[in-house]
Amino acid sequence: MTVPLPPPNRIYLLRHAEAAWAEPGQRDFDRPLNEKGYGDAEVIADKAADKGYRPDLLISSTALRCRDTADAVHRAMGVALDVSYIDALYNATVDTYVEIVDAQDNAAVMLVGHNPTIEQALEALIGHEAMVNALPAGFPTAGLAVVDFDVSASGWRLIDFLVV
């Protein structure tokens, strides 16, 4: 796996908010957010917008719970935010997440995805020790990692982590 170098100079990694349990016969892919998840998605999106965290491009898994979370971000950020939905983010490897970020030219990108891959992507960017120190209990639902490229260290650094 190759960790991307700028561009982009900022990466946002957002784990989808809490999902409902699957109904009998329902595919995992089609699980929506539960009531708490809808509220958490709105709160985290508003917190990000209030802090001025505005990606140029939002890329979301096509799974319903990720689309629901991305919709909350889109509402908070405004209609000018470009949103793309990519099937490959569902059940993807960390390499796929990193390759998608790396393919964005000069864009601050937000990925809305799934665990454990979103956590693994953050770890790939900032390293295992920084990951464990920042998130000892793991990457929570509706958690948003804000990662910048630190030129002096020639590597990625977690600058903020928002939770509900």
Automatic annotation (TrEMBL):
<dbReference type="Pfam" id="PF00300">
    <property type="entry name" value="His_Phos_1"/>
</dbReference>
<protein>
    <submittedName>
        <fullName>Phosphohistidine phosphatase</fullName>
        <ecNumber>3.1.3.-</ecNumber>
    </submittedName>
</protein>
<dbReference type="GO" id="GO:0016787">
    <property type="term" value="F:hydrolase activity"/>
</dbReference>
<dbReference type="InterPro" id="IPR013078">
    <property type="entry name" value="His_Pase_superF_clade-1"/>
</dbReference>
<keyword id="KW-0378">Hydrolase</keyword>
<dbReference type="InterPro" id="IPR029033">
    <property type="entry name" value="His_PPase_superfam"/>
</dbReference>
